[in-house]
TrEMBL record:
GO terms for molecular function: acid-amino acid ligase activity. This is GH3 auxin-responsive promoter. Residues 296-362 form the GH3 middle domain. It comes from Christiangramia fulva. Signal peptide: none annotated. Pfam families: GH3 (PF03321), GH3_C (PF23572), GH3_M (PF23571). Residues 390-495 form the GH3 C-terminal domain.
């Protein structure tokens, strides 16, 4: 019996048992009050009269009526740019010590999202909640003595004037508590290596020196790293290198498209736990086995609102129309897609994070990320969201017994002048493209009535092209988006898709 592990496990179990259930609506209202009180004397708080909102009987209603929606560009152009000009107390007291760089999947240049000291504390508390939730999983005591591989972006943050910049995973890793550093791998020295390939090479070289019990990172890049370690050591699977590996904390995107690929990497079953850490905050954790859903963290410096994900409320660029209705937590319904809005201790207000979610269990506050507002394919009325695309691709995997970890789709006219959906599927398994197209088209018709209607009118059909999965990573690398928090875009506009097609043709 691992003595230290048993003590840690007992403390986690005790903490989880002591945490009492609270009223989610009251928790969220208190979070909103605290946000407004803290920021009322900032330039933003004065402009939107936070002091007056706080006097209202229905604070949530007044808040939603008096503040517009903000996406990154609106928030940055109207407010956050003032931090870079030397101002303090812009949208949150003081000046943020960090800015999280996030080009996301569609942006041409990096966004700079403020990360305040209060947000770092919020992320730390969310991390503790995640660790506490491990008591709900059937893990042995010695698991809590193993090391954790956190595959994020470089922790070698760039100094810019009075703050530092880097991706949120690098910022978080550079602020890990001293007591955790002994468990944290690949360690400070390797984590500071900026070049992804060089960092992964060092991880592979040192892999056998570590006793890894858990992994954390985005699936696409985690898969590449694990394959590199396996190849370097000429092993059959990752458990030959790390025999005590038991948990993988996935994040950033839905894990399901990667399940089949990871099955070849594992030597034995690994508990996959989903997390929702964005550049703007740590929003949800999976706190029980038997589900891919995550529980919203509603008492930790983030106030949530939800806009029904309907075509009439979404502009072509993924932003919301001014008249889009936003509802509080109390009014959401299960299995309906919503655009997520957050207000946070980093001074983001009614902020469109860009993700769409659905509640799978309202009572448990459990959600799934269903896609991105910009990945909503609505050319000729097809109204396809990423979760519908993921589901259709998963059905292809099952039907043809193949692996498709990555895909890209665009709507454009074919040579005959008719509109088609062009799909590029990343797979190493040889399957007839016409058969895949017919099955994909059938799956989408069955899953989405709007798609079915579009197929009977302006949408002529589906064209499928199979390519090597590595081409998706090479595309990211060519666009200076390799490793860290980078996610492959699923839907492209015509101009970018033309560049993608040229890239594939050149590298195939």
């Amino acid at each position: 019996m691992a003595i230290i592990g048993s003590i840690i496990k007992s403390l986690i179990d005790l903490r989880e048992n002591l945490v009492s259930e609270t009223d989610p609506e009251k928790e969220q209202e208190q979070v909103l009050k605290n946000l407004l009180k803290t920021a009322r004397d900032t330039a933003f708080g004065k402009h939107y009269k936070f002091s007056e909102i706080l006097k209202e009987k229905d604070i949530k209603k007044s808040f939603s009526e008096k503040l517009p929606f903000f996406d990154y560009h609106k928030m940055n152009e109207e407010w956050w740019h003032r931090y870079h000009e030397g101002e303090e107390n812009v949208s949150w007291p003081g000046k943020p010590p960090y800015f999280a760089l996030s080009s996301g999947t569609t942006g041409k240049s990096s966004k700079r999202i403020p990360v305040t000291g209060d947000m770092l504390e919020s992320i730390r508390k969310a991390g503790i909640k995640q660790v506490s939730a491990l008591s709900n999983f059937d893990l042995p005591s010695d698991f809590f003595e193993k090391e954790i591989m956190m595959l994020g972006s470089s922790t070698d943050l760039q100094k810019e004037g009075d703050h530092k910049e880097g991706e949120i995973s690098g910022i978080s890793a550079s602020n890990i508590p001293f007591w955790f550093r002994g468990y944290y791998k690949p360690g400070e020295e390797i984590s500071k290596i900026d070049e992804w390939d060089d960092r992964v090479q060092k991880i592979a070289e040192n892999a056998k020196n570590w006793d890894i019990g858990a992994l954390s990172g985005i699936p696409s890049w985690m898969e590449l790293m694990l394959k590199k370690v396996i190849d370097y050591h000429k092993a059959e699977n990752i458990h030959e290198i790390w025999p005590n590996l038991q948990v993988y904390a996935s994040g950033g995107v839905a894990f399901e498209p990667y399940e089949k690929s990871f099955e070849e990497i594992w030597g034995r079953p690994v508990q996959v736990i989903d997390t929702y850490l964005a550049s703007e905050g740590f929003l949800a954790i999976q706190n029980r086995p038997g589900t891919h859903s995550m529980k919203l963290i509603i008492d930790n410096g983030v106030y949530f609102e939800f806009v029904p994900f309907k075509p009439e409320f979404i502009r072509q660029d993924g932003s919301l129309t001014e008249d889009a209705p936003a509802i509080p937590l109390a009014e959401v319904e299960e299995e309906k897609d919503y655009v997520l809005l957050i207000s946070t201790v980093s001074g983001a207000w009614r902020y469109i994070i860009g993700d769409t979610i659905k509640f799978t269990d309202k009572e448990k506050l459990e959600i799934r990320i269903t896609g991105r507002t910009k990945f909503f394919l609505n050319v000729v009325g097809s109204q396809l969201s990423v979760n519908k695309m993921n589901d259709a691709v998963k059905e292809l995997e099952e039907e043809f017994n193949i692996k498709i970890p990555e895909f890209v789709v665009a709507a454009k006219r074919g040579e005959d002048g008719e509109y088609y959906h062009f799909w590029y599927l990343g797979t190493k398994d040889g399957v007839n493209e016409e058969k895949l197209a017919r099955s994909l088209d059938r799956n989408l018709k069955e899953a989405n009535k709007n798609y079915k209607v579009a197929r009977s009118k302006a949408l002529k059909g589906v064209k499928v092209f199979t390519i090597e999965p590595d081409l998706f990573h090479e595309w990211n690398a060519a666009n200076k988006k390799k490793g860290g928090q980078v996610k492959m875009e699923k839907v492209m506009k015509e101009e970018k898709f033309a560049n993608w097609q040229q890239f594939v043709k050149k590298h195939s």
